[in-house]
Design brief:
single chain, mainly alpha, 16 helices
Length: about 325
């Protein structure tokens, strides 16, 4: 049975089942008059630092030759794609937000399956499909809860789903949502495998379930996707910092970059939540950076690639 973090307590709470992130956020935000400020702090500490960690791969000297050999897919193509995305955002910010939301859903779910594969003994495609199904289902329910009116206004048409939405409210679908979560969660841990894989399955299935219960979409993001952020930060720490011999000046530069990046993206990307006069397209700055993260991660964690397997993969299980 594989181990990423040798301390069982830390591995459980940072990678296998990091439910503490959502619970801590719920407690944390209760101390704020303006709940959006709690969200802002969560994005600064967890969200944007997780996005910034993508660049660690580009800073690593052992990856320089690999980057040169793959400069098209890791440099030029993302520059072109991100330029097109930014242009789309300038023309239609709503379309850019929708594209980023879809990209995030795919990316987060793919990481959940990736974590499951790290701990698997024998690949079971059925449990990977279960994770896809749960993510899709919970996000679909979240769409109806948070974005139905918004989508109808954007399209300039009536989708005639208002009564369905009201119907769900009148019958209190809360109990149905609990049943869905418990059922899928139970199925996810029935796999005949080690307990770590079971927990990874459960985390992957439950990740987007907060979209069924909370009243604010940004709360759902932190409570659910916060577990994803925690996992990503933990595995990046293991690869790029654990047992790594690094000069103090280099360490300070890297940590300063992560902090400044996170501060910049959080401030310019989410200020509109507090001030309606702020131009909404400022959110294009972090959204474009997020799209880079979604794209790049498809390559820099691809263990079927020999270089990735012998560098990132080797350190992950060292």
């Amino acid at each position: 049975m594989r181990t990423i973090i040798k301390n069982p307590f830390l591995e459980f709470n940072m990678i296998l089942f990091p439910i503490w992130v959502g619970l801590s956020y719920l407690i944390f935000k209760s101390f704020f008059v303006n709940e959006k400020l709690a969200f802002l702090i969560a994005m600064l500490i967890f969200g944007e630092t997780h996005f910034a960690s993508t660049y660690l791969f580009y800073f690593k000297k052992e990856n320089f030759n690999y980057l040169k050999e793959n400069i098209n897919k890791l440099v030029y193509i993302p520059i072109i794609l991100l330029s097109v995305y930014f242009f789309i955002g300038l023309k239609n910010i709503d379309a850019a937000i929708l594209i980023a939301a879809v990209g995030s859903g795919i990316h987060v779910t793919r990481q959940s399956i990736g974590i499951q594969r790290l701990y698997q003994e024998v690949r079971n495609i059925n449990y990977e499909m279960l994770t896809y199904f749960a993510s899709g289902l919970f996000l679909f329910i979240g769409f109806f809860r948070f974005y139905l009116d918004y989508t109808e206004k954007s399209l300039g048409t009536n989708l005639y789903l208002d009564q369905v939405f009201l119907f769900s409210q009148n019958l209190n679908f809360f109990y149905l949502f609990v049943f869905l979560l418990l059922s899928l969660g139970l199925i996810s841990i029935l796999e005949k495998t080690n307990y770590k894989k079971k927990l990874a399955n459960l985390t992957g299935v439950a990740l987007y379930s907060p979209y069924m219960f909370v009243d604010q979409v940004f709360d759902a993001a932190v409570i659910g996707v916060g577990a994803h952020w925690c996992q990503y930060l933990a595995i990046n720490y293991k690869v790029y910092f654990y047992k790594e011999v690094m000069k103090p000046t280099k360490l300070i530069i890297i940590l300063s970059f992560i902090f400044i990046y996170s501060l910049f993206m959080t401030y310019y990307g989410y200020t509109y939540l507090f001030d309606d006069s702020v131009i909404n397209f400022l959110i294009l700055l972090p959204l474009t950076a997020h799209m880079f993260h979604f794209y790049t991660d498809a390559f820099i964690w691809k263990f079927s690639d020999e270089h990735i397997r012998n560098t990132v993969g080797k350190k992950l299980f060292s």
